[in-house]
């Protein structure tokens, strides 16, 4: 674990950013070169080696925010996840996944891993001992995601990490929902942290990218796999990601505050059914979330409306219907109609994804305006 020397606010502005050595400008110049002079240098930059100045600036900033030694920036969250996974496991190895994962990750596991001869088990993560029970002699990796989508379940990161450590198993966590501002799993014993940077890291609904951060040794393994799979990010987008990261702490803190205010309001409203938010004291994972999310409980919440859910969504004026999440603007989706549409209604109900459930990605607007919009759509 690398100890942070500065606060997250300072890191978000300064970490990794090399500045402008020629003209002394305040921002990192864009270095679009794909060809560099190799004379007399041990290793030269090349975009698919993930080592150009713009790629390194972003990777170092995200690594700093996650208290990790090093990092890699990718062209998508899925590139970060699949490259990290394939860097650790090979044919005949076994992986334990938490059962409620992001839909794209779930899909990639069941469609791709059997083709590589990699075995896996999905377990209910609400009890960490389920991971220990699923361990086989050939288990190499445990993969978790917390808070989960869309019912914001909390996995006890420290417990899972210590089980894995006892059995010499590598751990990966998808930290997208929490963002590096709220939760730093490396501090809790996790080996590799991945992000869909398309969400809070980009934060403006205009970038697709991903990241993996870890110790230098794990990053080296990921890099070797990444050079073969090739999911690199171009200089212009890296530059935009670096710019976005300078405000991530301010954005996420406002989103945390708005989400908590809205969750508390919704819970007290008789027109609303269940509210899922780890910041609410009666959320089953609240105590663990409080311990492992020191920065805040995040900007994602879900709730059930007692009236017609699609009519409610259509009546919203400020809060927009959109998939994806983590942007500065508030967006809402019906998981039953989008991310979980391919699952049968009965199976959906079993995991709490009813037709009345809505997933809310809370933006940075004024909480009072968001509440007013919800109120008018409910009436
Ligand atoms: C969006 C998302 C991903 C995939 O990221 P892409 O950038 O779309 O490839 C992975 N995990 C979580 C939790 C996500 O929300």
Task: Give an overview in words.
The chain has 2 domains: 8-245, Aspartate Aminotransferase, domain 2, CATH 3.40.640.10; 248-378, Aspartate Aminotransferase, domain 1 (Alpha-Beta Complex). The protein has 379 residues and is α/β, with parallel strands linked by helices. Helix content is 36%, strand content 15%. The model has no long low-confidence stretch (mean pLDDT 96). The termini are far apart. Helix 1 (8-14) runs antiparallel to helix 2 (53-65) and helix 3 crosses helix 8 (216-229). It has helices spanning 8-14, 53-65, 77-88, 103-112, 129-133, 157-166, 179-182, 216-229, 235-245, 248-267, 286-292, 309-315, 345-350, 367-378, and strands at 70-74, 94-98, 119-123, 139-145, 170-174, 192-196, 210-214, 272-276, 300-305, 320-321, 331-333, 357-361.
Summarize the structure.
With 379 residues, this protein is of the alpha/beta class.
Would you identify the CATH H-level superfamily of the largest domain? Type I PLP-dependent aspartate aminotransferase-like (Major domain)
Bound molecules: pyridoxal-5'-phosphate
SSE succession = HHEHEHEHEHEHEEHHHEHEHEEHEH
Radius of gyration: 21 Å
Helix content: 25-40%
**Biggest sheet features:** 7 strands, mixed
Query: How many helix segments?
Result: 14
N-to-C CA distance: 51 Å
Briefly note the structural class of the backbone.
Answer: alpha/beta
**Level-2 CATH architecture of the largest domain:** 3-Layer(aba) Sandwich
Range of strand content: 15-25%
Organism: Ohtaekwangia koreensis
Region (Disordered): 1-21
Pfam family, one: Cys_Met_Meta_PP
GO molecular function, one term: pyridoxal phosphate binding
């Amino acid at each position: 674990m690398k100890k942070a020397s500065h606060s997250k606010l300072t890191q978000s502005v300064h970490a990794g950013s090399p500045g402008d050595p020629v003209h002394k400008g305040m921002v990192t110049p864009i270095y679009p070169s794909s060809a560099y002079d190799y004379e007399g240098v041990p290793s030269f930059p090349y975009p698919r080696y993930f080592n150009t100045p713009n790629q390194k600036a972003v990777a170092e900033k995200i690594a700093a925010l996650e208290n990790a030694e090093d990092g890699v920036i990718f062209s998508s969250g899925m590139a970060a996840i699949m490259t990290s996974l394939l860097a650790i496991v090979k044919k005949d190895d076994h992986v334990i996944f938490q059962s409620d994962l992001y839909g794209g990750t779930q899909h990639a596991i069941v469609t791709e891993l059997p083709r590589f001869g990699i075995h896996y088990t999905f377990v209910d993560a609400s009890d960490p001992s389920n991971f220990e029970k699923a361990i086989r002699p050939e288990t190499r990796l445990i993969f978790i995601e917390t808070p989960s989508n869309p019912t914001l379940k909390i996995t006890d990161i420290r417990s899972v990490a210590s089980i894995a450590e006892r059995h010499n198993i590598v751990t990966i966590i998808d930290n997208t929902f929490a963002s590096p501002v709220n939760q730093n799993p490396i501090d809790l014993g996790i080996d590799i942290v991945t992000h869909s940077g398309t969400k809070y890291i980009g934060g403006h609904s205009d970038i697709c990218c991903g990241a993996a951060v870890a110790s230098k040794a794990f990053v080296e393994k990921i890099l070797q796999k990444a050079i073969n799979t090739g999911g690199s990010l171009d200089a212009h987008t890296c530059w935009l990601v670096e710019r976005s990261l300078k405000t991530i702490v301010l954005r996420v803190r406002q989103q945390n505050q708005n989400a908590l205010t809205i969750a508390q309001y919704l819970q007290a409203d008789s027109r609303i059914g269940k509210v899922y938010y780890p910041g609410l004291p009666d959320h089953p994972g609240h105590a663990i979330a409080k311990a492992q999310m020191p920065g805040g409980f995040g900007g994602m919440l879900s709730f059930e409306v007692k009236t017609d859910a699609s009519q409610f969504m259509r009546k919203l004026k400020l809060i927009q219907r959109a998939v994806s999440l983590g942007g500065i603007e508030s967006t809402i989706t019906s998981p039953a109609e989008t991310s979980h549409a391919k699952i049968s209604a009965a199976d959906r109900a079993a995991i709490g994804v009813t037709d009345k459930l809505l997933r809310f990605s809370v933006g940075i607007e004024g909480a009072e305006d968001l509440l007013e919009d919800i109120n008018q759509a409910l009436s």
